[in-house]
Amino acid sequence: MRRVQRWPVRWTASGTDFGRRSWARVKASRIGPVTVVLALLVGVVPGAAGGRSSPDWWTVRPDTVATTLAPGTSFQVDKQVRTPVVPPRPDVVLLVDGTISMAETIGKLRTELGTITKTVRDEQPDSWFAVAKYGDVTDGEKAFTVLQGLTDNLKDVQEKGVDQLKADLGGSSPPVEDWINALWQIAQGGGGKTAFREGSSPVVVLIGDASSHDPSLGHTLDDAIGALTGRKARVVAVDIDTPVGDGLDGDGRPKEPHEPNQGSKVANGTGGTILKGVDPKRVADKIVEGLTNLPTTVSHRTTGCDPALTVALEPATQKVTSGATVEFKETITAASDAPQGQTLQCTVQFLMDGKVPGGNTRMRDGAVPEPVPDYHERISVAVRDVEAPRVTVDDRTVEATGKDGVKIDYVATANDAVDGDVPVTCTPAPGSLFPMGTTHVTCTATDSAGNKGTDTATFIVNDASAPQVTVDDRMVEATGKDGAKVDYVATAKDAVDGDLPVTCVPASGSLFPLGTTEVRCTATDSAGNRGTDTATFTVLPAPIPVEADIAVTANVTPVPNYVGRTTEARFTLTNAGPRVAEGVVLAAEWPGVTEASKRAVGRLSACGRDNPCSIPVGGRLTVTQPAVYSVPVSGDVRAYVRGALRDPGQGNNTAVARIRVLQPKLTITPEVGPPGQVVQARGRDFPPGSTVRLTWKPGITAARSVVRVGRDGSFEAQVLVLRKDRLGPRELHAEVRGLDRLQRPFLVVQRNLNPPDFAGRS
């Protein structure tokens, strides 16, 4: 349940105690106005003589919490927060009705408002003030005026603002005025004079005796409320009781009726307050009362909190009247993984209306600087060490070194989250003789907080290792065609039993054939562990003769071929051994021609005289050599091969391949004729299946003449001389891809001329 209480303010003067209830007696005495204001401030505003300067003054109680928690546990604190009477960093705009009916009220304000501003400053050092007045639409530009913009200079507020207030507006207008426009103008910044500071608490004190036009100079009441709430500005409405005005909540009757309760609506809509029916003589009292009784929302935020520490308040926020004490239920929780043995820190900053209360300093008794309460709580939580040290000792399985077992040196560790490494005690201790079989080892460690950690391990001593059998690889030369007899030694040693007999297959002294043989030796100890080792015995054959049997074969492609095309000879070299053929040289002879320029033979691709080659035993190597003939030829390509080593069989060192190169031929009949003549073209020794393209040069070929060569390498085709084609000599071209072009001459003559009149060309 939320509990809210008003905190008592006590002070001592001339031996008399005053509290809030003493205000009634002050009010009843009807003493002078300034005295009334001071008495009110003493009784209501903290920071007066008996307030913050008092030794027992507090804002957050308790403001320091120091406790110890185990990880994953919580601690609850009953928290009290005393709210400031005046909102933090207030920007106060005094908006005063400047019409004639407010003369008495303005007179009181001129003499007493300075005391009020000073009192607010004492409570909130970082406070600014502005003074503005409003009238009626009939006052033209004077309907709203900022006499003094927001400033922290109280002298300017008094002399340029309060002292300049006059009741000179309104005239004979009805009681309804234009304070709605004035509120809207203030929210908009008043031409830069009422622009509220960032992070301030804006408060507009509306002092008037009449309702407002709505709309007021083009702005509705909703416009004004929206503009004020957009600036987070609150309105303290001071409703002055005069014979003329209809009050801030009036309805404008009888001259200008409208919806009533404008003052209440703007106060409630902005989160402020309204003071109704105020006597002009008590205007200062009521202003103080309004400023010190505003709704205040108390919330909080955490700063500088360790990740393992959380702070929650229930409820999270509370709304009270300024000056009240708010109670929260605070829960401080250390996370389950909070670092043990460390101290966690957190600061809880309480906020008033979302702002940090107070400023940097204030003046005590007008002279001594004193820090303004910062409304924060400091939390310190020592995380208890509840975790035992982590002890670690590992299971061991150890081979016995003798009949009695084995001495085992081992390491056990203990690490504590707080103390770090701590000493460990184990039974049996490291270095003890462990017998054959199973022994349980127990290790313990205790940290400085008394937490005890334990770990156990199982140590097993056995004879689980097989004997170490050793037999080495051997390589010998055959003593005959069946191999060789080999004598060898194999050993076996056991960690417990010592030397043991060994059995090997094949046994020492056996006949080992040519090649490799695996020898497997075994030994068994008294515990039944069997050890094995293998070796490879290699019997090498008798020395190999220093010779290489090389051979060559030849093949020529294509056959037949044609002049101008490449013919390739492929020579295959082989080596039947028994040694690698070194210094192998191949020589090739091609059919000759009358003119050496008509034959072009290329280099051997390998194994020539200038680059001998090697052929491994069983290897095969292909060597190529190209040749191009420009004339037809038919004959044999001969190949010869030799090597550096002795060749036991030279009958295959020579090879022959047949070669045939053809020259295509073209003839035409007749060789002379008139336009329109059909010429018979014949070819032979052309590549079978190839395509021959026939064209006149010069002249016009009636259609592209293409003919395919037959299987026997010949073709026949008719080529037309067009009737209107040119006269004179020309050539018939025959073109085949990959061959030189062939051509035959032809003479075109007039139709009335007979061939005997001309000498034909051959």
Counting H and I runs of at least 4 residues, what is the number of helices?
8
The CATH H-level superfamily of the largest domain is von Willebrand factor, type A domain
| Strand-residue proportion | 35-45%
The top level CATH class name of the largest domain = Alpha Beta
* Termini Cα gap: 133 Å
Strand order of the largest sheet: 9-8-7-10-11-12
* CATH third-level topology of the largest domain: Rossmann fold
The helix content is 10-25%
Major beta-sheet overview? 6 strands, mixed
Rg from Cα: 61 Å
Q: Architecture of the largest domain, according to CATH?
A: 3-Layer(aba) Sandwich
Protein name: VWFA domain-containing protein
InterPro entries: HYR_dom (IPR003410), Ig-like_fold (IPR013783), VWF_A (IPR002035), vWFA_dom_sf (IPR036465)
Organism: Streptomyces netropsis
Keywords: Repeat
Give structural notes:
Helices cover 11% and strands 43% of the residues. Helix 1 runs antiparallel to helix 2 (33-44) and helix 2 (33-44) runs parallel beside helix 3. It starts with a strand and ends in a 14-residue tail after the last strand. It has 762 residues and is mostly beta strands. The chain has six domains: 57-85 and 296-360 and 372-384, Immunoglobulin-like (Sandwich), CATH 2.60.40.2310; 90-293, 3-Layer(aba) Sandwich (Rossmann fold), CATH 3.40.50.410; 390-462, Immunoglobulins (Immunoglobulin-like, Sandwich); 476-539, no CATH class; 550-662, Sandwich (Immunoglobulin-like), CATH 2.60.40; 665-748, Immunoglobulin-like, CATH 2.60.40. The longest helix is centred in the N-terminal third of the chain and has 21 residues, at 103-123. Mean pLDDT is 86; it is low at 1-51, 359-371 and 757-762. The radius of gyration is 61 Å and the shape is flat. A hairpin with a 3-residue loop joins strand 33 (491-494) and strand 34. The strands form 15 sheets. The chain has a six-stranded mixed sheet, sandwiched between helices. Strands 1, 4, 6, 14 and 16 form a five-stranded antiparallel sheet that branches.
